[in-house]
């Protein structure tokens, strides 16, 4: 090695050292990084394709924009779409797009991209779960670069609210084969490093149409174990996480953390098959539901104040279509209904549950205790968690079920319409189906809402599903974070979230 | 001796083949199959068909076992249902990480355990010995999820000295991984040190009381020389089998420690695979862990054979 070259190397090293010292001495210029965890629920196949069955939803929320989104109050507001107008019978919707929005690669968001992104939903090769929500989209016509017309196969007045689904994102036209790893959207953050089993890194998109994000970057770390996630949060390795009610006490006395909580739409329920004796009689179905003390059950299952009492209506608490029903425990009514139906000495049945999800067995046990005074004798049968959805659910007469939050139109059609493939209680009522059709066909909100409310009341009177409460979502995050709102992550305005000095 | 080693090796291969049959058979006996387990509520119609076709589940079990075993013999573990990647690739990195953690714990644990074990034996029933032995019993009996949680509580959440959970990628360079893994390494070191320490202590005490050591004393051999030349080599033999067992445990069974610390090793992958009902992956990991267990037992046996003159000259 000659001398000149060695000198050069020393010079380089000195330069690097100087840079390093500079980086050390100026922590104030440090990047504002928000660190969060995901639970690796797709086992490392987390896909950046928003329509994929194994979508990486936490990250996709940040990468992509939707046409329409919800406000904190649950109302629709424009995102990429500026307006949405139906034709007279709600079979076609004309969507006008915001001008000047750009994808991360610099290309403009136009009607071609909307056509591509929406028509993709029903591509059978994708096996997208969104097909069950937006399967009525027949085609999308491009009117001009900023106008698209969505043509439906049936009347649907509720299309705009279904377009707020967290999976219905606009991606560049023709990017179907690359989107799963490229992540090119028009959201507030851009993909920097994609590593679902390690740390996925996103950096701020300075050209975001609503203004540049306040954070410099966001990191998503894979931590499957729930306790490990909380420990990472408490130890300062994470800034934000969802928590379960039983983890709340861990934050007692930690003034550097903020806890927040808001009503959501996930629930455990009991399904009584309406096509099987004795539950073919609506009086029996009502008896086994009104005998429940829902308030107490919610408290036993989730603790004080972590759930919204629900009267068997699957629509979440802050959904504009939710019906207001009151349903106190009524043992006498239950006895009376059973006697009228021909069971003066009460009934007994097997209730199938499993350790599939935490709480599913406890749920059955609380039910068993609560309805016993009404002469309802429940025999709990433990089923193996493997194959529960396959061999027990929709097969046995009485089973515990579990659902995630869905918009009103979606859950009512998916779980209760005659013949629907996930109609777990085999509920079949032409009047009920007619109400759902009416809601879909009606362009007047009050009228559509009334039809949905009537449908929910019908479920409370004659349905075969007990939904005693819906569980809240709880967040815990560092006090230094600013702009975290009590809304589900996909409705959060992440570009407004900021990190102040600790 | 070669014959003895070959015998052991043959037995190991036989055990592994037997385990392969059990692992495959257990899955066949279960109701449903890999596809119904994986798809859950969606296990019907076209989705189920395409999954079963992809995994070849439409063919008879005998045929599939032959193929599976054949590929196994060539080192191909098949493809994960959930992850859609070759299992060899998924498991390779995890195996590396588990080995990194195990080796780190052993490197620190073995010298500490032998040193302290000999010290305790030489100071038998004195305060040092009582302190060491009691601590060791505590370290052995406290379950790892308790000690792990306590360590996180004190050193990560309380003092902020070390990272509480591992946040680096499973593919991170070894040094980055280790920098993030101080607490898991300490947890494992604690447990294995305790086990080995107690073994070393009792066998050193045994040897110290033996007749040839007494003889050496009577001949006037200095105490230091007795310990170094005569006691230590003879008392480490039982320690080797404990170290072998510990290594097998480290390579296969640190599921709890890996989950608590989010360490990207084989144990956590096993838990994730079970949670996802990814049966081909579970089968592969089960087999791999059994293989590692058998391998470390074999290594211990051979090492013990070579160190023990009585076993060395043993004829069958």
UniProtKB/TrEMBL annotation, chain A:
Q: In the record, what terms sit under GO molecular function?
A: peptide transmembrane transporter activity
Pfam families (UniProt xref):
SBP_bac_5 (PF00496)
> Which locations, inside or outside the cell, does it occupy?
Periplasm
* CDD domains in the cross-refs: PBP2_NikA_DppA_OppA_like_17 (cd08503)
Which InterPro entries does this UniProt record tie to the protein? Answer: Peptide/Ni-bd, SBP_5, SBP_5_CS, SBP_5_dom
| Keyword terms, alphabetized | Signal
Q: Which residues form the signal peptide?
A: 1-30
This protein's GO CC annotations: ATP-binding cassette (ABC) transporter complex; outer membrane-bounded periplasmic space
Q: Where is the Solute-binding protein family domain?
A: 75-406
Gene Ontology biological-process entries: peptide transport
Origin, by domain of life?
Answer: Bacteria
Q: Please state the protein's primary subcellular location.
A: periplasm
The text of the family note is:
Belongs to the bacterial solute-binding protein 5 family.
Stated name of the protein: Peptide/nickel transport system substrate-binding protein
Organism encoding this protein: Dongia mobilis
Automatic annotation (TrEMBL), chain B:
Keyword Lipid metabolism attributed: no
Q: Keywords in alphabetical order, please.
A: Cell membrane, Membrane, Transmembrane, Transmembrane helix, Transport
Query: Could you tell me where this protein is found in the cell?
Result: Cell membrane
So where does this one cross the membrane? Answer: 99-122, 134-157, 177-197, 235-261, 281-307
Q: Name one GO cellular component term.
A: plasma membrane
Which top-level group of life is the source organism from? Bacteria
Q: Does the keyword Membrane apply?
A: yes
State the family named in the UniProt similarity comment for this chain. Answer: Belongs to the binding-protein-dependent transport system permease family.
The protein, known as: Peptide/nickel transport system permease protein
Where is the organism placed in the taxonomic lineage, from the top?
Bacteria, Pseudomonadati, Pseudomonadota, Alphaproteobacteria, Rhodospirillales
């Amino acid at each position: 090695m000659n001398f000149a070259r060695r000198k050069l190397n020393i010079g380089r090293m000195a330069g690097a050292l100087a840079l390093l010292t500079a980086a050390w001495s100026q922590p104030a210029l440090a990047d504002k990084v928000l660190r969060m965890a995901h639970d690796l629920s797709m086992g490392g196949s987390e896909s950046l394709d928003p329509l994929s069955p194994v979508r990486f939803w936490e990250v996709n929320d940040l990468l992509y924009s939707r046409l329409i989104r919800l406000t904190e109050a649950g109302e629709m507001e424009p995102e990429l779409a500026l307006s949405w107008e139906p034709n007279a019978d709600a079979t076609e919707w004309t969507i006008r797009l915001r001008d000047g929005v750009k994808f991360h690669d610099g290309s403009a968001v136009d009607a071609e991209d909307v056509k591509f992104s929406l028509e993709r939903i029903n591509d059978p090769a994708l096996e997208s779960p969104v097909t069950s929500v937006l399967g009525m989209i027949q085609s999308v016509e491009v009117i001009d670069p900023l106008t698209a017309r969505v043509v439906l196969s049936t009347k649907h007045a509720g299309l705009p609210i279904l377009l707020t689904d967290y999976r219905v994102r606009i991606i560049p036209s023709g990017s179907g084969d690359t989107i799963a790893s490229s992540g090119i959207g028009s959201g507030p953050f851009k993909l920097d490093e994609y590593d679902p089993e390690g740390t996925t890194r996103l950096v701020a998109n300075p050209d975001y149409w609503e203004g540049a994000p306040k954070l410099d970057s966001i990191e998503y770390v894979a931590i499957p174990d729930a306790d490990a996630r909380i420990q990472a949060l408490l130890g300062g390795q994470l800034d934000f996480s969802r928590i379960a009610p039983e983890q709340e006490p861990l934050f007692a006395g930690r003034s550097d953390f903020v806890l927040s909580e808001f009503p959501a739409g996930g629930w455990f329920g009991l399904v009584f098959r309406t096509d099987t004796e004795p539950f073919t009689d609506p009086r029996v179905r009502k008896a086994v539901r009104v005998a429940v003390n829902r308030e107490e059950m919610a408290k036993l299952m989730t603790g004080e104040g972590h759930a919204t009492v629900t009267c068997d209506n699957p629509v979440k608490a802050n959904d504009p279509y939710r019906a207001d029903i009151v349903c106190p425990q009524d043992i006498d009514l239950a006895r009376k209904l059973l006697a009228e139906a021909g069971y003066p000495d009460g009934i007994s049945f097997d209730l199938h549950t499993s350790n599939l999800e935490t709480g599913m067995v406890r749920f059955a046990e609380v039910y068993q205790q609560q309805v016993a005074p009404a002469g309802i004798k429940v025999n709990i049968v433990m089923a193996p968690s493997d194959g529960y959805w396959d061999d027990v659910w929709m097969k046995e007469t009485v089973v515990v079920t579990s659902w995630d939050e869905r918009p009103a139109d979606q859950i009512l059609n998916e779980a209760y319409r005659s013949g629907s493939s996930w109609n777990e209680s085999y509920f079949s009522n032409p009047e009920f189906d007619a109400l759902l059709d009416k809601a879909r066909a009606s362009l007047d909100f009050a009228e559509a809402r009334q039809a949905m409310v009537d449908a929910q009341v019908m479920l409370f009177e004659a349905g075969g599903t007990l939904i005693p409460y819906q569980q809240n979502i709880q967040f815990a995050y560092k006090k230094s974070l600013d702009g975290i709102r009590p809304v589900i992550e996909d409705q959060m305005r992440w570009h407004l979230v900021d990190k102040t000095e600790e | 001796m070669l014959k003895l080693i070959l015998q052991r090796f043959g037995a190991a291969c036989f055990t592994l083949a037997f385990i392969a049959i059990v692992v495959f058979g257990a899955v066949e006996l279960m109701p449903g199959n890999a596809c119904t387990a994986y798809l859950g509520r969606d296990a019907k119609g076209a989705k189920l068909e395409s999954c079963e076709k992809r995994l070849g589940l439409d063919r008879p079990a005998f045929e599939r076992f032959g193929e599976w075993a054949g590929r196994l013999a060539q080192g191909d573990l098949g493809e994960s249902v959930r992850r859609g990647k070759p299992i060899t690739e998924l498991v390779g990195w995890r195996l590396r990480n588990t080995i990194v953690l195990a080796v780190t714990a052993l490197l620190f644990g073995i010298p500490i355990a032998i040193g302290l074990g000999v010290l305790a034996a030489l100071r038998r029933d004195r305060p040092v010995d009582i302190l060491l032995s009691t601590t060791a019993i505590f370290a052995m009996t406290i379950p790892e999820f308790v000690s792990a949680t306590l360590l996180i509580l004190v050193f990560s959440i309380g003092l902020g000295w070390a990272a509480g959970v591992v946040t680096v990628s499973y593919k991170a360079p070894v040094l980055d991984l280790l920098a993030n893994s101080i607490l898991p390494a300490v947890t494992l070191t604690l447990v294995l040190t305790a086990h080995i320490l107690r073994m070393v202590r009792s066998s050193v005490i045994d040897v110290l009381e033996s007749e040839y050591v007494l003889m050496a004393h009577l001949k006037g051999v200095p105490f230091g020389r007795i310990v170094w030349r005569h006691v230590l080599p003879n008392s480490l033999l039982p320690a080797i089998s404990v170290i072998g067992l510990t290594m097998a445990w480290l390579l296969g069974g640190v599921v709890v420690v890996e989950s608590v610390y989010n360490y990207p090793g084989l144990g956590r992958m096993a838990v994730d695979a079970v949670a996802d009902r990814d049966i081909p992956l579970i089968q592969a990991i089960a087999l791999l862990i059994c293989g590692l267990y058998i391998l470390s037992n074999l290594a211990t046996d051979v090492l013990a054979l070579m160190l023990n003159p009585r076993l060395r000259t043993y004829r069958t």
